[in-house]
Inverse folding.
C-alpha cells in the first residue's frame, strides 16, 4: 500500500462529520479531498500551499469530489498557519497532514524546507491538535534537502516523547503521532 493511502486508512475511522482538519501541504489536493469527504459540510478543512496553481487544481478536485464540503485554501506557508486559522481551531483539530517535498510535475525548487516545516509542526502539535488528534508527516529524503528535512523531522518527533508509528517504504518515511 502506498504511504499516502496508509495515511487515509489510519485517519478514516478517526475523522467524523463535523470535525476540523488541516492539510498543511495541499499539493495536488489528494489529502484535502479525502479530509473534506470525511468531514463534510458541518466540519471545516483548512489547506495551505505556497503555489497558486496547486490551490487552483485542488479547488477543481474539491468541486467535483467533495462538493458542499467546507474547505478554505490559503495561499500561504504552513509556518504562518496561526495568522490564518480561526482561534476556534486551537486544541480542537482532529487531524493535521503534512506531505513534504516537492509536487511532482511542478517546479522542483518549490519544496518544503526543514526550518519552515519544523515551525509548522510546532504550531500543529503545540497549538492546534486536540487530545486524540493525529499528526501525519510523510517525508521524502530522495531530493536535495530532503534528507536534511527528514532527519530534522525525526529529531523533532523524538524530542516530543510521544508514541510514534513510523513506516518506511523504499524512500519515503511516514510518521503518525496521536496526541495523548
Ligand atoms: N512529495 C510529494 C508531494 C508533496 S507536495 C509526492 O511526491 O507525492 C508538497 C507541496 O508543499 C507543494 O505543492 C509545495 O508547493 C508545498 N509547499 C512548499 N513549501 C510550503 C510551505 N512552506 N507551506 C505550505 N506548503 C508548502
Amino acid at each position: 500500500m502506498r504511504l499516502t493511502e496508509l495515511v487515509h486508512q489510519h485517519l478514516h475511522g478517526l475523522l467524523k462529520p463535523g470535525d476540523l482538519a488541516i492539510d498543511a501541504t495541499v499539493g495536488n489536493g489528494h489529502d484535502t479531498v479525502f479530509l473534506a469527504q470525511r468531514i463534510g459540510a458541518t466540519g471545516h478543512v483548512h489547506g495551505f500551499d505556497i503555489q497558486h496553481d496547486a490551490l487552483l487544481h485542488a479547488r477543481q478536485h474539491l468541486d467535483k469530489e467533495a462538493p458542499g464540503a467546507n474547505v478554505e485554501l490559503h495561499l500561504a506557508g504552513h509556518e504562518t498557519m496561526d495568522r490564518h486559522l480561526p482561534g476556534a481551531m486551537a486544541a480542537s483539530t482532529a487531524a493535521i497532514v503534512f506531505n513534504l517535498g516537492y509536487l511532482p510535475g511542478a517546479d522542483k525548487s518549490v519544496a518544503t524546507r526543514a526550518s519552515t516545516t519544523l515551525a509548522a509542526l510546532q504550531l500543529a502539535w503545540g497549538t492546534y491538535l486536540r487530545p486524540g488528534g493525529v499528526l501525519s508527516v510523510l517525508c521524502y529524503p530522495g531530493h536535495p534537502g530532503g534528507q536534511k528535512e527528514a532527519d530534522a523531522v525525526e529529531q523533532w518527533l523524538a524530542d516530543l516523547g510521544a508514541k510514534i508509528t513510523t513506516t518506511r517504504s523504499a524512500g519515503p518515511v511516514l510518521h503518525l503521532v496521536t496526541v495523548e
Remarks:
- The helical segments are 3-12, 30-39, 52-65, 114-128, 146-160.
- The radius of gyration is 15 Å.
